[in-house]
Design brief:
mainly alpha, 9 helices
Length: 168
C-alpha cells in the first residue's frame, strides 16, 4: 500500500473512531500483522493492497452496531461495516470497483470462521485473532483452541507461537 493511501485511510478511520484509542490502536495492529503475514506468505501486490485496506477498515461497523443494536458483536459489525467501508473507500479514491467489493466482502465476513475463501480472508482472520487474543487476555487453553481451529498459514502460526510462548 502506497504511503499516501495508507495515511489517508488511517486518518479517515481515526476520525471515524475518534475518542476510542482502543479501536484506533486495534486496527493499526491488525494492519501490521496482516501486512506481515501477507508479505511473508507471498501475496501479490494486488492481494496485499486489498488485504491491507480491509485490515484498516475491518471494524468500521462497530460504532453503528453499538448505536443500532447496543452491541459490537461480530454479526452486527459484519452487517453494518460493508456499506461504511464502501463509502470511505469511494471518498478516499484509489480503488477499483472490484477492490471495493472485495474489501466489503472481507469486512462483512471477518467474524465468520467457516468457509474461508482466499488468502486475504484467511490472513485477515488470523491477524485479527492475533490482536484479539492479546487484547482480550485469552487464557492459554483458548489460545491453543484458536491455534487448532483458526490458524493455517505458517507465518500466522509462527507469530502466534512467538507471541504467546511461555503463557501456560
Amino acid at each position: 500500500m502506497e504511503n499516501r493511501q495508507y495515511a489517508a485511510i488511517v486518518s479517515r478511520m481515526a476520525e471515524h473512531d475518534k475518542g476510542s484509542p482502543k479501536r484506533i490502536q486495534h486496527f493499526l495492529k491488525v494492519h501490521a500483522f496482516a501486512r506481515t503475514i501477507g508479505t511473508a506468505e507471498g501475496l501479490d501486490d494486488e492481494e496485499l493492497y486489498v488485504l491491507e485496506t480491509a485490515a484498516l477498515v475491518h471494524d468500521i461497523g462497530i460504532r453503528d452496531a453499538l448505536v443500532k443494536y447496543g452491541s459490537e458483536a461480530g454479526p452486527y459489525q459484519e452487517k453494518e461495516g460493508p456499506a461504511l467501508a464502501k463509502q470511505l473507500l469511494e471518498e478516499t479514491g484509489g480503488y477499483t470497483a472490484e477492490q471495493i467489493e472485495r474489501v466489503m466482502y472481507l469486512v462483512g465476513h471477518h467474524h465468520t470462521y467457516t468457509d474461508i475463501r482466499g488468502m486475504d480472508y484467511r490472513i485477515l482472520v488470523e491477524a485479527d485473532f492475533l490482536v484479539n487474543l492479546f487484547e482480550s487476555s485469552v487464557k492459554y487453553r483458548g489460545i491453543l483452541a484458536a491455534e487448532k481451529t483458526i490458524f493455517q498459514t505458517e507465518t500466522g502460526k509462527r507469530l502466534l507461537a512467538l507471541q504467546f510462548e511461555n503463557q501456560e
